[in-house]
Design a protein that fits this description.
Layout: H1 2-21, E1 26-29, E2 34-40, E3 49-53, H2 64-72, E4 77-80, H3 97-111, E5 117-122, H4 125-135, E6 140-146, H5 157-178, H6 186-189, H7 197-207, H8 210-221, H9 223-231, E7 242-247, H10 254-268, E8 273-277, H11 291-304
């Protein structure tokens, strides 16, 4: 058992070392802090730039498979690491949607990556993109929500239970990260998505990082505040093309209420659509197995964008 633990720790260090040789992306200064931005695809590509926002505990590497798929179709896309996550510098507290959206606005402005933007968000990113879209409607050409958390769903009893449990687990993860407990786990369970090799190494590197997990936990602690921030802004514009992709088999009872809230943005949009991937999981919907379906949804919204 001790030998296994020592081997895991050694592998964790090896993963970190390998991933650091050729770090992905570039660090962009947003005013005294730097965020890691990973862009792919032709710089002169026509149409809106696809911008990815990861879910809780996620980072740019989460979209490695999808970015590869878009690049093969001649589409430019960018993903980034939020403050304190991955390779990005930490940011001021609290880490709620207002702070995260403010950072993203600065990043896009400073990066030289011109809009308009087609925003793609996974999981908790649904909260952040609701606020971003309301504040930047003139720059947003379309929206794709991937099993995303809608702000209004936070009022569901089952959602309150989930958020409470997730918050507890995240808090414990932050403590464990401080103690260095994630370092030996990174190589084994860091990639639950099914990513290409380079992105998988980066994902495992982040998962093994104490800092990444601490700052991720701080974001989760702001879930309810982020939900409130999303609920008070203007609703989605019916003229905005919106695609919703959810994961897992059809649900009954309280879980069906959650899916109903998830699909609501597609019903609001005049050109909206909702696709459910019955055989996909919440995380692996972003991986190689389901990449083509995600790319197809993005291209469908892109085709409807003005």
């Amino acid at each position: 058992m001790l030998l296994g633990l020592l081997l895991s720790i050694a592998l964790g260090g090896l993963v970190t070392a390998i991933a650091s040789v050729n770090p992905p992306g570039r660090l962009v200064d947003i005013g005294g802090r730097k965020l890691n931005l990973v862009c792919a695809g032709p710089a002169d590509a026509a149409g809106p730039l696809v911008v990815f926002e990861a879910g809780a505990f996620g980072l740019s590497a989460d979209f490695g498979a999808v970015q590869e798929g878009l690049t093969a179709r001649g589409v430019r896309s960018c993903a980034y690491d939020r403050a304190g996550l991955g390779r990005s510098d930490p940011g001021p507290a609290p880490r709620d949607s207002a702070a995260i959206v403010g950072d993203l606005e600065k990043l896009l402005s400073a990066s030289g990556e011109a809009g308009p933007y087609l925003m793609v968000g996974h999981s908790m990113a649904g909260l952040h993109l609701r606020l971003f879209t309301a504040r930047n409607r003139d720059k947003v050409a379309g929206l794709v929500l991937l099993d995303a958390a809608p702000p209004e769903a936070a009022d569901l009893p089952i959602a309150r239970t989930w958020i409470g449990r997730f918050g507890t687990v995240s808090h414990l993860a932050g403590i464990g990260a401080t103690l260095g407990l994630f370092a030996p786990l990174g190589p084994a369970i860091g990639d639950r998505i099914g990513l290409p090799p380079a992105a998988a190494r980066e994902k495992r590197r982040a998962f093994a990082s104490g800092r990444h997990n601490r700052w991720s936990a701080r974001e989760v602690s702001g879930w309810l505040a982020s939900s409130e921030q999303g609920k008070v802004v203007a609703p989605y514009d019916p003229d905005l093309p919106i695609g919703v992709v959810t994961a897992g088999p059809p649900r009954q009872g309280a879980l069906s209420d959650w899916k109903r809230f998830q699909s609501e943005p597609a019903r609001v949009s005049k050109t909206g659509f909702h696709v459910n991937l019955d055989d996909a999981g919440h995380a692996d919907m972003l991986g190689l197995k389901h990449r083509d379906k995600i790319v197809e949804a993005i291209l469908r919204v892109r085709a409807a964008a003005p």
